[in-house]
Design goal:
Layout (H helix, E strand, L loop, with lengths): L1 H9 L2 H9 L4 H7 L4 H8 L4 H28 L8 H21 L4 H11 L5 H26 L5 H21 L1
Helix pairs in contact: 1-3, 6-9, 7-9, 8-9
Length: 178
């Protein structure tokens, strides 16, 4: 009963309607409403139950990571995140690109993301080839950053998390360059 109340109070109308219609279980609805409204809407629109479960898991993990960072900043009294502004912007942009790719392709598998690009790239199109050649600089940069991180790898959690985030983009870059 508490979960149904949570869906009613915290969820967007689309989530409540999906639970009410039986397209989404109350338990699933209660998990969906833990997300921001735009994410709730995206997830509840997915018709395939397995797809919805997969995307929901990804979004919840992203949400928990963001929340943990905010809580750490609040409890430590330190809003500073290590790294230069350049590093922060670099990673933020890489993360935005990754999230866009995952959202569009509905897959977090780096090989699937790279294969989708390679399947859909029209190599006979001069504008696309030119754009790709310009982007090769970025791909080479990402590969170099990843190689540098791998060479200096530590066993710390921070290093592991960074490698997870850059690993997917790195795989795409390697597939495209390779």
């Amino acid at each position: 009963m508490q979960r149904a109340i949570k869906v009613k109070k915290q969820g967007i109308p689309e989530v409540f309607k999906a639970v009410e219609d039986g397209r989404v279980t109350v338990n699933e609805g209660a998990r969906i409403v833990d997300l921001k409204p735009h994410a709730q809407k995206q997830i509840v629109q997915l018709q395939d139950k397995n797809e919805r479960k997969k995307v929901l898991g990804t979004r919840l993990q992203q949400s928990r990571s963001s929340k943990a960072l905010r809580e750490h900043r609040q409890t430590s009294g330190d809003a500073y995140v290590p790294g230069t502004p350049y590093v922060k912007r670099f990673l933020a942009r890489a993360e935005m690109m990754l999230n866009d790719l995952i959202s569009e392709s509905k897959s977090e598998n780096p090989l699937e993301l790279a294969d989708k690009f390679l399947r859909e790239m029209d190599w006979s199109s001069e504008p696309l080839r030119t754009q790709y050649q310009h982007c090769e600089k970025l791909f080479a940069c990402i590969v170099r950053v990843h190689s540098g991180i791998s060479a200096n790898r530590s066993e710390s959690l921070a290093s592991h998390q960074l490698q997870s985030r850059t690993g997917i983009v790195n795989t795409i870059a390697l597939r495209c360059l390779g």
